[in-house]
Amino acid sequence: MAIKYDKPLPRIDERSRPWWEAARRHELKVQRCDSCGYLAFPPAPMCPRCRATEPGWLDVSGRGRVWSWTVFHKSYFAGFAEEIPYAVAIVELDEGPRMWTQIVGIDKDQLRMGMPVEVVFDDVTPDVTLVKFRPVAS
Question: Taking residues 79-83, what's their average pLDDT?
Answer without folding.
Answer: 90
